[in-house]
Design a protein that fits this description.
The complex is a heterodimer. Chain A is an alpha/beta fold. Chain A contains 9 helices and 12 strands. By secondary structure, chain B is mostly helical. Classes of the chains: A alpha/beta, B mainly alpha.
Amino acid sequence: MLRCEQVWKRFGKLEVLQGIDLEVSRGEVFVIVGPSGSGKSTLLRCINHLEVIDKGRIYIDGELLGYREADGVLKEQDERSVARTRASIGIVFQQFNLFPHLSALGNIIEAPVQVKKVPKAEAVKTGKELLRKVGLGDKLDAYPSQLSGGQQQRVAIARALAMQPKLMLFDEPTSALDPELVGEVLDVMKNLAAEGMTMVVITHEMGFAREVADRVVFMDEGRIVESAPPEEFFQSPREQRTRVFLSKIL
Amino acid sequence: MVLAIGIRFDPSVVWEFLFNGVILRGARETIWIALIAQTVGILLGMVFAVMRVSRNPAARGASGFYVWFVRGTPVLLQLLLVSFGLRQMIDNEMFREVLTRWRAAVITFSVNEGAYMTEIVRAGIQSIPSGQMDAARSLGMTNLQAMRRVILPQALRVIIPPTGNEFIAMLKNTSIAFAIGVLELSSAARRIYADNFKVMELLVVAAIWYLAMTTVFSLLQAEAEAWASAGRERPKTLGSLLVRALVPGGRER
């Protein structure tokens, strides 16, 4: 479903991603953990081409991301093709990034109508169902400023789901939330995983990782240090750096 | 207190000419020129602002040059360039007929306003947190779609106050068209006092009209600002209070 091959990314002089290799199969849930500055967010942003990688390749569902291969030469894709690929990848941000000038329902139907040209009535119907699914069926007309953080994030998840993505990325979805509100968002994510969505989640919620992840990946200083199923990762990590990190947060 | 000097000012003359035909025409022209120039200026501003923040260096450069040149020269000079200057340079009968003084004034004010609007719209666009663009693009929108549907609507809230400012300045700057003989409020006043020598009285008439126009548009600006705050607290404006008081059954928007 998602394959990263030797991905390198530099910002100015700083090598933020140093040779990342990652393979996520359909329906798998990968949780990425690591200290801040380790490149986790950058990796996610490279996966949906918000950032352009310097070296390496990323394949989404078998297709090379961001480039067309013609006669062995890589040519950059035009904006429209990239936008189309992005539409099939959903991302949920730490800061929610809801559109404040639109209601909850408005946020959710915006992309399907504008990008996929779905007729408005149909988009509204799907939108209402999605909002009900994340537990906000009564908040259709509420504006983001009228919603709590947990509610806003759930709208953000519904908004990403409205585009029927093949892959969902989560960049620390609960880090900006009050502790009491974290649970409701994690519940939505757990349901999504149970339904078979392919997910890559950056989080510090280790309970979530233990419960839901198929693999836990530890990143530090732009490299993947360790990658293992949760039982192995939390109980018997192989790398010293992993052990140090775990001791600090568990 | 009796002044040693006599004050030659006749308030009844002010009243006499306040609704004079020439004055009213002048006032109407002032509003008309200002509206057209401001509207075109806003459209130019939006186009050039998007160019200014674009990833295309040619677009950025062209927009930058436009802003630099137009902001760097006095509007009076630009007006003279467009009317008298072009008349000298382009030795074509039809061109001179088509480029009337009125059209030269509207073109100059439009292009001039466009440069200032470019900077205002650009500031508005850049005031929107980058996360909004990220979210829009992540949902599959192209840069242009994101601009139109997500960024510019939010940027309006930041853009409207300085734009209102610009329009009020524009109403007054139309008086510069005086220099090429276009009929607007100030030149209308002058035409009359050149005839009856009641200089002060006519200037007061013009001042009253300018004040009336700028005041009305200030109120409209407040309404526009309130409208742009959709989804947030709607502030109580004088306009909305008037609507509630005067319109039977009228409710706040």
